[in-house]
Amino acid sequence: EQSDVTGVSGLWVECRDGVADMSRTKLEQAEGDVYRAQSSALPIAVCHRSRSPMDSTLVYLRLSDLLVILGGDDERDQVGAVVSMRLVEFLEVARGYVRQVWLDNERQSD
Questions:
Q1: What is the pLDDT of residues 29-70, one digit of tens each?
Q2: For residue 75, pLDDT beyond 80
Q3: CA dist., res. 34 & res. 40, Å (int)
Q4: Which pLDDT value is given to residue 78?
Q5: What sign has the CA pseudo-torsion 56, 82, 15, 22?
Q6: Would you call 98 exposed, middle or buried from its count of C-beta atoms within 10 A (0-12, 13-18, 19+)?
Q7: Cα–Cα distance measured from residue 102 to residue 13, given in angstroms and rounded to the nearest whole number
Q8: Can you give the C-alpha Rg of the chain in angstroms?
Q9: Prediction pTM value
Q10: Burial class (CB within 10 angstroms; exposed 0-12, middle 13-18, buried 19+) of 28
């Protein structure tokens, strides 16, 4: 298995562009893929409704994973609450986390 988007350290991204709301299904797919791949990446679903403006694209993830991204609790809970936020806002929040995971991976590979 591989994330729909590669090269984003620390995140397992599943994407959906469609008419029907598949956010929960895509997040569950990402979670299953992370489990099967034995990955430490945080699963997220990026969903866009067809014919909607691109700035309406939403990211869905578990609240516990959002707290990890924000630098808080490292306890992840795959059955916890699902939260959503606009993609543009998520990218601002996740930038530091992705950078730190990338740096940690670089240090480990040296």
A1: 999 999 999 999 999 999 998 888 888 899 999 999 999 999
A2: no
A3: 7
A4: 65
A5: negative
A6: middle
A7: 16
A8: 14
A9: 0.87
A10: middle
